[in-house]
Structure formats: C-alpha cells, structure tokens
C-alpha cells in the first residue's frame, strides 16, 4: 500500500515537471501564464483568429462596432458561408459543390458543368436502365393497338359479308398511317 502511494506521488511530480517544460505559445500575442493577450486585430484562445472589423474600429472591450461583409460575431471572427459550412477554426468556408469563393458565393460555369457532368456520369446508367423498360412497354402497346385496329376493321368488314384478308388489311392500315404522317 505504501509503495503504491509513493509511485502516485512520483508520477504526479513528473507530470508537473513536464508541464513546466511545456511552453505555452500564442500565435499573435504574448502568453501570460496559461493565457494569451492578443495584439489588436486578433482573437481566440491562442490569438489565431483574425478579426474582420469594418474600418478596423474596435471597442475598448476588444469587440467590433460592426463587421465587414461576410463576417459575424462580437469580434467579427466567424465567417458566414452562403453555400457551405465554416471549417473547425471558423475562418474559412468548406463549400458545397459546385460553389466556390471565400464565402461560397460564386458559381463558375466550368465548376457547374463539371459538377453536373460528374452526376450524369454516376446516374446515367440508372437512367438508361429506367428508360429501356419504358421503351419496351411503349413498343408492346403500339403492337397491341395495331393488332386491335386490324381486328376491328376485320370484324366490321366481315359483318358486311366481305371476304377479309388479314395481311391486306394490315398493309393498308400501315401504308395509310405512313402517308398521313408524311403529309
């Protein structure tokens, strides 16, 4: 039990020594203990966030009077992404496809073409697989309709005691339909 207690004390002392060796750093400011004092125009726990105050006007408490376009927050250090989301730091946008630009506000023609061409490349085969059955059904309906037309004419002529040749009726109806479509 005593040995366990001694090992805990030693490990705690080693941890304290390691923490003392670790130098706390600030990107755009100076460290006082474990806290950063940022130079004007920067914010964040490590002074790593650029403030985007309109006309660089900063209040005495370090906040901005007004933000430049595309920025928000009391220190104007949070980006507003129109068609996207801010990155982990909140200073850059991760844009949705096909948008680009600092605030994901731009649509370049080449980006749009590339985006939709890629979609067609991925979804094209699915579209083809959906169209083929529809074409087959349409073809079947056309054949059935033609067969019914021939049968109706055949029944009508048979009712008038006229000898009917099914092949002649079929030829007559198809040539009549072709002539009507050409005019």
UniProtKB/TrEMBL annotation:
Name of the protein this chain belongs to: EGF-like domain-containing protein
